[in-house]
Structure formats: C-alpha cells, structure tokens
Amino acid sequence: MAKVTxxxxxxxxxxxxxxxxACRAAGVDVPHFCYHPRLSIVGQCRMCMVEIEGVPKIQxxxxxxVRDGMVVLASSEKALAARNATMEFLLINHPLDCPICDQAxxxxxxxxxxxxxxxxSRTVEPRRQFPGYDRTSIGPHVIADMxxxxxxxxxxxxxxxxxxxxxxxxxxxxxxxIVWTHEGKELDNAWSGCAADVCPVGALTTKEFRFRKRVWWxxxxxxxxxxxxxxxxxxxxxxxxxxxxxLPRVNLAVNDFxxxxxxxxxxxxxxxxxxxxxxxxxxxxxxxxxxxxALDAVKAAVDAAVAKDPASVLVLGSARLSTExxxxxxxxxxxxxxxxQVEFHADLGPERRIKNPSVPGGWLVGKEAAPNSRGAEAxxxxxxGKGSALARLLDGSYTPEVLYIADAExxxxxxxxxxxxxxxxxxxxxxxxxxxxxxxxxxxVLLPVASLAGKEGTFVNVLGLVQRFQLAIVPPPxxxxxxxxxxxxxxxWGVFDTQWTAKSxxxxxxxxxxxxxxxxxxxxxxxxxxxxxxxxxxxxVLLERRLSNPAxxxxxxVAEVAGGEK
Amino acid sequence: MSDxxxxxxxxxxxxxxxxxxxxxxxxxxxxxKKVLAGSKTGEWTPAKVTDLVKASGLRGRGGAGFPTGxxxxxxxxxxxxxxxxxxxxxxxxxxxxxxxxxxxxIEKDPHQILEGMMLASFALDVxxxxxxxxxxxxxxxxxxxxxxxxxxxxxxxGTNVLGSGLDLDITVHRGAGAYICGEETALIESxxxxxxxxRIKPPFPAVSGVWDAPTVVNNVETLCCxxxxxxxxxDWFKGIGRNERNTGPKLYCVxxxxxxxxxxxxxxxxxxxxxxxxxxxxxxxxxxxxxxPGGSSAPMLTGDEMMDVPLDFDGVAxxxxxxxxxxxxxxxxxxxxxxxxTNIAKFYAHESCGQCTPCREGTPWLHKMLKRIVNGQGKKxxxxxxxxVAGQMGNGMTICVFADAAIAPVLSAIPKFRExxxxxxxxxxxxxxxxxxxxxxxxxxxxxxxxxMHS
Amino acid sequence: MSxxxxxxxxxxxxxxxxxxxxxxxxxxxxxFSPGAEARFQKLLTRYPTKQAALLPTLWIAQDEWGxxxxxxxxxxxxxxxxxxxxxxxxxxxxxxYNRAPVGKHLIQVCTSISCHLNGAEEVFxxxxxxxxxxxxxxxxxxxxxxxxEVECLAQCDKAPAVMVNGDDHASxxxxxxxxxxxxxx
Lengths: 566, 455, 185
Description:
The complex is a heterotrimer. Chain A has 17 helices and 25 strands. By secondary structure, chain A is α/β, with parallel strands linked by helices. Chain A has three domains: 2-91, Ubiquitin-like (UB roll) (Roll), CATH 3.10.20.740; 118-270, Alpha-Beta Plaits (2-Layer Sandwich); 279-563, Rossmann fold, CATH 3.40.50. In chain A, the strands form seven sheets. Chain A has an eight-stranded mixed β-sheet. In chain A, strands 2-1-5-3-4 form a five-stranded mixed β-sheet, with helices on both faces. A three-stranded antiparallel β-sheet of chain A has the order 6-7-10, with helices on one face. In chain A, helix 8 (323-337) runs parallel beside helix 13 (482-492). The radius of gyration of chain A is 27 Å and the shape is elongated. The longest helix of chain B has 21 residues, at 357-377. Helices cover 45% and strands 13% of the residues of chain B. Chain B has 20 helices and eleven strands. In chain C, helix 1 (34-44) packs antiparallel against helix 2, helix 2 (54-65) runs antiparallel to helix 3 and helix 3 packs across helix 4. Chain C has helices at 34-44, 54-65, 70-80, 84-93, 113-116, 120-130, 177-184, and strands spanning 105-110, 145-150, 162-164, 167-169. Chain C has a four-stranded mixed β-sheet with strand order 2-1-3-4, covered by helices on one side. Chain C is α+β, with helices and mostly antiparallel strands. Chain C has two domains: 34-93, Arc Repressor Mutant, subunit A, CATH 1.10.10; 105-184, Glutaredoxin (3-Layer(aba) Sandwich). The chains are: A alpha/beta, B alpha/beta, C alpha+beta. Chains B and C meet through strand 3, strand 7, strand 11 and helix 15 of B and helix 2, helix 4 and helix 5 of C.
C-alpha cells in the first residue's frame, strides 16, 4: 500500500496503482482517454497530465506508478494548462459531428472538452479527413469513422488483449494515423460491440444503434442478459416502451466490463408482443378472450386430467424463466395440483466466453443457451433427461392430456416442425408466448406474456451466483408476466396471492431453495454490484475498488453471496 | 589544433579501408585480442573496460551527450538480473537532418565500429549485439555485413572467440525509413518487429529494453571512440578536447552554404570560426546569417551568436542551443528563414510517429501555419500563434522528446528573425483577421467559459 | 423506429474508394523462392523471437516481389505467426516498403533542410516534369521511373542528394539533372 496526497487529500492505495487511480481514489477525476482499467497502459492521449512534487516536468498520471509519500497536484495551473493544451490539439482536427454522432451524450471528448480546454477554437487550418474511412462498415456490427478518431488505441488494445483476435491496427503514421483492419479481414470477433464501447468518441459505433435514439433520452434498467448461462450484467436502455440497446454493466465477478455480441444485439428482440390478448383455440378456430376465461379453461383441463391420472399432465418449465417463476410453477403443479411431472429442458448452445481475470483460467464459459437452468432446478423443476416425461413425449411413448408450456421459446427447437408435431400430440396445449412460432400457432390456450424487459426476478448463473434483473418496461395492457399468470392461476386452486411481487416470492422461497438462503433482494451481490450502468463511466467505480489480486475479487464476491445481506 | 591527428577518420581515405587485412595491418583488433586474452588471466575485466570508458569522459555522440561509461553502469549486475541476457544495440539509424558522419564510418571503416562493439559487448556481458542501420543505407548494410563475415571467418566473432570462452554474435538489422527509430526506445520497438513507437520511460532500456532484457544503445561514433580509448588509454582521450567534460576527437558534419561541405574531425570544442575556416569559408564569401549547430532539432543561432561558440556539449549549451549530432547547417544571407523553418516543420510532421496527441496534432498544425504564412496567406496573429502552439508541445507533454525537437526551430527562429516572418504576413492577402482577438470577442458575447458547465 | 442496422452507410460521391490505406492485391498466391527461403531461415536464427524478423522478412519479400501486396502481407504474417493486420500496420509505418509496384528506377529526392538550402525542391519538381509530368509517387507510363520526395538521406555534404533504388547519387542539381536522368534511361 502507498499513501498518496492529491490536492491536499491523502489516500491509501495499493502499491500497484498508478497516479491516475490514486487521484480517482482521492476524489479527483483527472480527464483521460486512453487509460482503461482492463487494458495495458500506453500513456498516449496525454490528457491525464498532473504535476508531481519533486518532478520538474508535467506527467501523464496513468503512466506513473504511485510511491509512498507522493504528493500530486492534479489541479494546479500547470496541470490545467497542460490538459487545455491537449484538448486544443484534439479539437483542431476533430470534426464537428456532434449533431449527427451517436456518441453525443456519452462521449468522453465532449465531457472532457467541458472539463478542460478553451471555450473557443484558435485554428483556421483545414481539418484532415479520411474519406472512404468515415461512416464505413468495419465489421458486421461496427461502423468506423476515422475522421473522428483520436488515436487512443483502446480498440486496438481491446482486440489484441481481451478478444485475442488482433483485427485492428494503426496504419500510416503521424497525423495520418488511422485505425483499420487488414484487407479482407473485418472487425469480426465475438465481442466487437465492446470495441465500440471502449471507443471514447464516435469513431466506432454499432450499426444496430445507429441513429436510433439520443442517449440522454434513454432510461436504464439494471438487468441480466438471458442469452446464455453466464448472465452478463446488462443495462436495458429503453424509452417509450421500446428497448433500444443493451450495454454491459460492470460486474467484476461475472462479465467484468464486457458482453458478447450475441447477447448485446438481441436487445431489440425484446420489443414486440405478437399477442395482445389470451387466445382460445377450439376445433381449428382461434378467438381472443379475457384472462378469466382463459385461466378457467386451463384449470378445467388440468383438473380433469389429474382426476384421471396425475401423470397425464406434463408441465414444461424453462431455463429462461426466473427462479421465482420456476418456483411458483413447481409449487403449484407438484404441490397443490398434484401433477408431479414438472420438467425443463435447456439447449446447449454455441459456447460463449467472457474474459474475466478473476476466474480461474481467465475466461468465464457458458455452454447453455439459457440463463437459469440452475435456478429452475433449485426451485424444484427437474431437468428433463433420459426417461423423463419430455423424452417419452418426444419418442412417442407418452401422450399427455394436458401439456403446459410455461415458455413458448424454451428451446430453439420450438421452431422445428417435427418437434412441434410431437408436442402437439397432447390433447390440450397451454402456452405462455410472446412472439409467434409454431408452438404458439398450435396452442389451445395461448397466454400472452412479457419479455425479459417486462419483468423482474433472479437468475442463477454458471458460477452459482444469484443475480437480480430489474423491470425495464411495464408490459402493455392485458399482457402479463409469467409470474402474474402463475399467481392468478394459483388463485383458482386457492393458493398464492395475486398481490405478490417477484420480491415477495423471493422472500417466500429463499428459505427452501438451495443457493438462496440468507440472501437479500437488495443486497449488493444480488442486485448487481456497480451502481453505475454505463460502461463509459462504470469503470470509475472500479478504480475505487481495484484490488491488486484478481482472486481476491472473486473471493469477495463469493463471500458477499454466501455471507448474507449487506 | 595544428598538432591534432585524425583518429576516427584516420583510415577513411585509405585504399581497401574496409578490408579486414588492412584494418589489422593498421593495428586493428589489437585491443579486442588483448582484452580477450586478458579476460582469462583476469588482467582485463568488464569493470576495467567500463572504468576506462568512464575515465575518458566519453559522452554519447548520437545527440544526447550522455556520459557513456555511466550509461553502461545502469545495466543491473548478473546477480540482480538473473538469467536475462544483456543486449548492445549500435544506433546506425543516422537520420537527423544535417548529419552524415556515421555513414562515412560505416561505408569506409566498418571494422572500427565492429571492434568498438566487441569491446563494449565485453564490458556489458553481451552475447548478441545488433546494428540497427537505417533502411536507406543499402550499401552501408552490405559493407557492414561483409565486414562481419570477415570477422566471423577470422574467429573474432562467434563461439569461444579466440579461445576466450566468450561468445559474441553481431547481426545487422535494417530499418525501413523512419527517423523516429533513431530514438532508443523506438529503435528497440523496431528491432522487436513493430511500429517504431517510443516507449514510456521509466523503465529505462538499461533495466528493461529489447525483449524485456537490459539493453544499451550506443551511437556508431561513440563505439568507435571506445575502440580508440582501449587502444590508447583514457588519459590520452581526455587530453583531447576543450576541457574535462568535453573530451575526445569529434566528427563534425558541415553542410549548407559553405564552400566545402563535409565531415571534419577536430578536438571537441573547436570554435565554430575555426571549423568554418576548415570548410573553406562561406560560398561566394557571403555572410553567415544563421547556423543550426546540432541537426535540425537544435535551436537556431544567428551568425554573430555562433562565431566563437566552442563546438562541444557545454559550449553550445551555454549559447542556448545544443551540439546534438554535431550536424552544423550553415545558412548565408540569401536564406529565406521562414521558408527554411517551414521545410524543417514539414520534416517533423512527416516523421512524427503519431502516438501522442500534442506531437501528432501539433507538428502538422505548425507546418500548416508556416506554409500558409510563406504562401502569402498569413494572418496578423499567426506569428504569435506559432510560438504559443509550439510552447504547449514540449517539456513533458509528450512521450518522447521528438516534440521538443520539432518546436526548437520555431521557438528559436521566430524571436531571432521575427521581421522576416512578419514581413510575410504584412504582404499577405488577408492580414487583417486576428483570430485570437476575434475569439475573445466571441467568448465575451456568448458569456461562456468552461467554468460552471456540467462535468 | 428509424435508424438501426440497415441505415445506409456510404461515402460521399467523388471520394476515393475504400482501400486507399489498404493493401493492393497482386492477384496470385505467393511463396518464397528457394533463395528467399534460405535467407529467411538464416534470418530466424539471428533473433530470439519470430516477430523480430518482421522487418528483415519484409525486405526479403520486397526483394522477391518488388512490392508488398495483400498476399505478401498474409504470407509474411503466416510465416511469422502474426496477424495480417499487425503486419500491415508495420508496413505502413515505414516509408520504404512499396505498397504498389514501382518503376524500374525509384528516384528518391531528398528535400530536407540542407538539400533545401541547395535548391532540392526545384530539382524534385524539375525531375517530375522532365519524366512526363509525374505526380509524386506516380510511375511513368513506360514503367521506368517513379519519383518520390524523401527526408534526409544523410548525404548533406553532397546536397541535393538523390537515391535511385539502393544507390546514392551526389549533388544532383538543375544543371546536371538532364545528364543524370539520361544515364538512367
């Protein structure tokens, strides 16, 4: 540890910290561009200039390791003059694109230009441009505009140090330096959206979000990606009931600063409800109805089936449901109704990876394509394996009277006609659905439900960490969350309370669901570690909590989970 | 002065000066052989060689003038550095405008350089030394390679050199056209197979240089001096030169408007007046208007200021410039100083590596402003602007001192030849627009400063 | 919603095509001749890392094929275990690697300060004019000449200094320019 004094305030920081981090710890935000806590130090932007007592020349604070007893003057005239100078240099060639640039509002250049630099421009020289390399696609998800680039090399370092793919490089030199790829090879790795995240200006932006929405209009919800079992913490950025994009939230124990493109670019899939009312289908004709009739029909069918044979009801849960929803499903059907076959199936998907130095091996790997198989199992929904009711249904040896599917998208095979044909052998098919697929087309009772953005609850990720996702957008009228559907269904059997929220279910179930004992709905680990949501500022929080040993970070996170409420 | 005998340039005019046989016939490799033989008996140790170089007062001939012996002592001892090898890199990237002394040593007396490298390698415990030579010196590289082949064939390089039990390899590594690769850490990056971006210091190359190993980078001429120090002793070397802090023979490159431009060898500290005489004076007998004493990175001096300056590190520093690579560019009264400064600014804009903001953006900005001025579109405020912009580029603002070099011509020429710059502006088509003043009005009207804005 | 992934992404009309900073294709697969391969293998023994052999390997490639094409970049990158982007970044940093075929005589005219003081810019412009009004870097129609401006060649005592391919030529002035050029034809 080292004691460092910054602008008169003394703080103690790890001996491996640099002066920029020490300043942040002391509450002094030194403007910077090229520094990023997860990327190597290059000291190139020359924005973070400070004065250090005893050192004659101005210093780039990110390049200077702390020394015990160091005295830093981060706000002296000399330091401010140096930063003003760098800002002036950056702005002489930077295009006045703010009115058309997606980065506006979350742009480090804008933010730092307000914090440092002159309020007017002194240059009359023509600005350099890179025609052909501006507003040009550089990869399947990223557009590059090199005229805006400030040559900080964050994107280059991200691709080589984090992604490990090295597609980006500096080309040319001096004032003609740009960042680009080599002919024929695009910026095409599994995390290319993160390269756009780390870019402090609008030189790299994502295609999916291009011109969609000004960022200051976006409301943010702290959520968890449901693309795979890693459970990257995300911010659902939405406005007027529409989801515009996902951004990763910092979580040192799970996804660190990153998220993969598969998860990131699923954001807009959360928009859209193909069904606005429950639908009953009889003899080929479908008619919309209200919840009362639909749920009564479900109860009637289930009661009749259970009366004949409890094993004639098969309830298929989903690894995409929250633990609370899975728990209600299990409690209702296994407990109250007496239909013991409550199973779920989770697809194995393409392997997803997130680089995280606190994980042994350095990579967190997700093999399942859904977020919460562990929660489902813990809540009492059995994983469908050999000999399970689902297996027997698929191989033709079992035909249920009632097949209750709590998630029309529980598997990617739900678009596979052969798969659906098997499921449709059930006499009565009840489906929770949001978007049209073959399963919803075939449902006898179709119950419209909300997307991930429309509900809240917890998932248990691949590390066994319980993570809570918040509501982003209240579902449209009539559409319910899976949780509400189950509560209303339960009421018909005299259990549950329709006033319950996801939180109250959490409190009810945590005593008996493995992994949930002693957790608090609002505890830091459950609610998502970092209070800020935007990755462009989130890592500032990291500076305060940076530990020198990554293993300690994970241990601390695990201790938080296991150790109870905070 | 008349009793000074050339040392470094003694063999340059000889027939077959490059050949090993002639080099040996002239006494070459005697020191290498003596040190190798003495290394077995203990008569010669690395420390002894280093002490000799320290005692000689030799200061680096590449431009920085850092005491060579002291630089060598920064390499950690065997105990401290463990298994890490030490590397010696000979900086033959000579690219400072006005400099051409290393070229002639390379092309005409390569074995002198090799022997210097061998002796330095002995002092530093180096097993593999490299010569980083600029890509343009195609024939220079061929000459060096031929000399190295001869040395291997004669057993002066390789394994168990001359039975000493020591190994030494030397490899020539060609650059490909980048002035910045003469900066020691950029040279190291280039040797490692990357773009030549200077590194943040610390760590210094002596501790962590090429391939993360302790590295010493020495100039061609410096290493040649090492050979002569081992030949004739530290006292002899110290006896040449103006004083104890500026010792040894020096190669001076004189170019520009002199009668006989070329490389001239003289004791350190020869007054400019005398050197000019050696060059046959000014072409056409004209007057000296301005001189850049140490390559384009050195501040410009007026002819009057220059005349009696002793041409050594301290002498030129006292005149508020630097000896640098001893590349003396002499300009006569026909010289258009603004155009000359514009030309130099173009050089720096081309050669900036582009890593850090002040240099990447500042060097082209300076060049654009100067071009505009000499093309007759200068503005009244431009001359002051040039000084202000140059003034915010150096002194720690950048990773390396390229920016400090780039601003030296601007910061020295404008105060000394201000009328010439202002004459351009007054003849300009649009002299009247005063940008900073107008900007001042704008900010007053808008009633905004950076204060009070959200963060 | 407006905008999004299908927003047209184009450059303004009249701008150069994308690829000005990209590597040109030579239209065929490349590999080292036996001689080049032997030089390459010897090279690898002189450095502790493969990456360090990059600049010398690029020189071998340029000696082989005259210029560094996209295929040359990919080949060199593969031989040294580096990414093609990295190799291209190195190629474009240095001025001496040709990124397109050059004429039989690559005429490099120095216009740094000492040569400038001796009229080098006039020599550079005259040279281009006399060889067919060539633009800087442009190759003459008969493929014989390319003229470029370079920085200090360390030949300042022989200003204006000119290099042709790897050879140094001293004191090329307006007076002897014609004679110098006729010797090259």
